[in-house]
Amino acid sequence: WEQQWSVLALDAAAAEANIIAARSRIWEAIKAERERRSQYGGYKAAGKWFHSDTFSRSQQIGLVIMGANIPAGLQWKTMDGSFIEMTPALAQQVFQAAAAQDGAIFQHAEQLRSWVDETPDPEVIDITSGWPETFGGV
Question: Per-residue pLDDT for 76 more than 80?
Fold first, then answer.
């Protein structure tokens, strides 16, 4: 038995279709990574990491709305399992940290998208590096 391989060049249209498909697939992977980091990566305020999932975000917005009416001595659990006293000032810091983290994650995803769209070989772009810091490297 003998096996032989023939290597044939793709025509330009097929090659372009492959690049378009690769860019689309990689963009979907970037969006999934962006979403994962936004939902589970947390954000840091007052030296502590706070949960960033949708439910936690709604609670945090509630704290901002409560302002000075946050119950005195309210203990808030952070991502490392420790507690911190929630205050109106801390609620504002958490809210601002969330906005900053969301913006940084979104900006990095868009930068990756740009690189993927600009390169003739989108597979060479490392979409796993350069993201903003998250809790536990999530």
Answer: yes
